[in-house]
Amino acid sequence: xxxxxxxxxxxxxxxxxxxxxxxxxxxxxxxxxxxxxxxxxxxxxxxxxxxxxxxxxxxxxxxxxxxxxxxxxxxxxxxxxxxxxxxxxxxxxxxxxxxxxxxxxxxxxxxxxxxxxxxxxxxxxxxxxxxxxxxxxxxxxxxxxxxxxxxxxxxxxxxxxxxxxxxxxxxxxxxxxxxxxxxxxxxxxxxxxxxxxxxxxxxxxxxxxxxxxxxxxxxxxxxxxxxxxxxxxxxxxxxxxxxxxxxxxxxxxxxxxxxxxxxxxxxxxxxxxxxxxxxxxxxxxxxxxxxxxxxxxxxxxxxxxxxxxxxxxxxxxxxxxxxxxxxxxxxxxxxxxxxxxxxxxxxxxxxxxxxxxxxxxxxxxxxxxxxxxxxxxxxxxxxxxxxxxxxxxxxxxxxxxxxxxxxxxxxxxxxxxxxxxxxxxxxxxxxxxxxxxxxxxxxxxxxxxxxxxxxxxxxxxxxxxxxxxxxxxxxxxxxxxxxxxxxxxxxxxxxxxxxxxxxxxxxxxxxxxxxxxxxxxxxxxxxxxxxxxxxxxxxxxxxxxxxxxxxxxxxxxxxxxxxxxxxxxxxxxxxxxxxxxxxxxxxxxxxxxxxxxxxxxxxxxxxxxxxxxxxxxxxxxxxxxxxxxxxxxxxxxxxxxxxxxxxxxxxxxxxxxxxxxxxxxxxxxxxxxxxxxxxxxx
Length: 682
Hints:
The mean pLDDT is 90. Among the domains are: 101 residues, no CATH class; 117 residues, no CATH class. It has a 5-stranded antiparallel beta sheet with strand order 12-20-14-15-16. Strands 22, 23, 26, 27 and 28 form a 5-stranded antiparallel beta sheet that branches. A hairpin with a 3-residue loop joins strand 6 and strand 7. It is α+β, with helices and mostly antiparallel strands. The chain is 43% helix and 22% strand.
């Protein structure tokens, strides 16, 4: 009877425990990360009797959780990948809508501006048409400013979100460290604390949603968690921290630092996966380059329009004024150079010399004992640095291609150890402004006109000359003061310069003027259309004009080149402004002779930006669908093993209730037998 009673009691205890575990499973059906538990039973050691070994009941061996390290690791990596993609997608979706929108993008404003120019060119003396040009120029500048502001807001959001994410990373890392300690203590007793293990796995899974992690199990049942390129975030119960701080090379571009003990390490470029990795990837791959591309476009628009206007004359006969503000103002040039923390007091400035050849890259300038080293960050290429004149650095790539800007060192000059971030185009769209407010100051007339002599007897004709180029005579690579150049041209032309046709069938040219082909040496072909380039130098400037001479002039016929002082109805410069819409002016590559090899127009340049962002957006959406499916599959795989099935647990409740009742019946039978035995001795 004692054996039977003991057997019944063991079954009663086992069934009670099974019921408790089943109830625990049911109540945690919605607990994130919970793994279904079950108890394993084994028979007790049998007792020997004369008839052989007789069983002595059951005992609980272990309470296990339904768990697979492989499936859990798969879910962790899928969570990290999906969070990365979703963070990237949420940002690029906004950018794509901004750039491609008919009311928010740059293209509509560009089209309106050039449409207004076309209208004004048809009637250059019409003041209302000129006013419309000014209004559309102001609208175009504001559109650039607005788009930049939106991009800047997105950058600020990225900075704030990075801070919020690192706070969550630090919180979860601290939780994992505490759980590691509790698990190690519990595991020292020989059994695994299932609920603590589930809590830690869930904390690690949540952590992987914020940042990519590598988990290394230890012999004491603790986890070591690594991030980046192997930085130990959690080692046992020891926990490091992450902190987001303003970037050394750009305070507006925050960076992530890893803090362990008293040391700090910048790890921004090493972070992958999770929401933090997605935000950093979006900023590096899309946001920075978009701001630079937009800035380059605005600089090109400002430069090309201003340059062309300064080669023309306004309604008063004066040299044209700039429509857009000077992008090389000292305050703006200073903002393009960011000094690193710990530098000397040097503060160089960056002046744009040729917006048409600018790239969309940032640059890093470092000083050592041998002088400055400049590296283009888009491809990590080391640049060639030339200092001429003293204190001014010109930058070219390994092929000698100028990068379109100069760095003026200023005083005090940088010293060894100084580092600077160079951003030629980053703020271009923010700084563009329309400054011209007088419609009659729009220079729509060309500066030079040609006329055939009134006494000419032949059929010779000359087209209106086209001012091809104006260069600094001492240094053709230096920027030209357009106003002074036009004033020098006006002085030179004076009362006109004559091209006279002689009896020998050649033209005599004004002193100092050369031509290609050489008109003075048989270069003119009578009866044909002759495309001629005239070149001369005056007032420290070199000029090149293009004209066409045709027909058959007679000896003594002449043609006059004069300054177009009263060209009120002249629209030649206005037409050149209109032509800028399709001219290759952005991202230009030049050959050795300065001829354009490749480049894009304003509209095409912006179109390429929109197309690139659109392609990346479409790819992000496909990646989102793919990673979402992978995450769902990984979740389903994990849940198929570890999740609580209420139907199964309900069946277990019935089974273990019956088990409990049957065990209680065994005890009742043992009691009855014992009572019968006792009563037989009375």
